[in-house]
Write a structure and sequence with these properties.
Order of helices and strands: EEHHEHE
Largest sheet: 2 strands, antiparallel
Structural class: mainly alpha
Length: 149
C-alpha cells in the first residue's frame, strides 16, 4: 500500500520519500488508526485523574495512500467513497477517545479541539466548496478549515 507518504498497514514511510521508519515491526498489518486507538486507550486508562493531561492525536487517516478497512465503506464506486470511508474510520476513533475519557472520569474537565491542518487536495473527488485554492496553497481553500471545540 505504499504510494503515498505513510503506509497505514506497514507502519512505515515510503522509501520513495527517502525515509523508512520501520520501528513498529510487531504491528505490521494492523491499520494505523487501530494502533493509535489502542495507545490512546492505554494512556487515558493509566493517567492519574488528579494531574493534567495534554493529548495530541494527529490522525493521518484522510491522507494518501487513500485506503480504509472495508467495514468503513458505505459505497465502493468512487474515490470519494474511499475518502468518506477514511472519515468514517476517524469518526469512530474520535468516538472511542471520548468514551475513554468518560470511562476514566476525565471528560467533565476536558477541552477537546478537533480541526484539520489544511484544505483538501485538488482532486475530482474532494472539495473546498466555494473557496479558492486547495492543500499546499495560501488561498483560503488551502488554509481555511473546519473545526470544533
Amino acid at each position: 500500500m505504499i504510494s503515498g507518504y505513510y503506509d497505514f498497514y506497514e507502519c512505515s514511510y515510503s522509501d520513495e520519500e527517502g525515509l523508512n521508519w520501520d520501528i513498529l515491526t510487531e504491528d505490521k498489518g494492523v491499520y494505523s488508526l487501530y494502533l493509535y486507538n489502542k495507545r490512546v486507550r492505554h494512556i487515558v486508562e493509566e493517567h492519574d485523574p488528579d494531574t493534567p493531561l495534554f493529548l495530541y492525536l494527529p490522525m493521518q487517516s484522510v491522507h494518501s495512500d487513500y485506503f480504509a478497512p472495508s467495514k468503513y465503506y458505505d459505497c465502493t464506486d468512487s474515490k470519494r467513497c474511499t475518502m468518506q470511508a477514511m472519515l468514517n474510520a476517524a469518526e469512530e476513533m474520535l468516538t472511542d477517545v471520548i468514551q475513554y475519557f468518560k470511562d476514566a472520569g476525565l471528560w467533565e474537565n476536558t477541552l477537546l479541539v478537533y480541526h484539520s491542518d489544511n484544505g483538501a487536495p485538488k482532486r475530482e473527488y474532494t472539495s473546498n466548496g466555494p473557496l479558492r485554492g486547495s492543500k499546499s496553497h495560501l488561498w483560503e481553500g488551502g488554509v481555511r478549515t473546519v473545526g470544533f471545540l
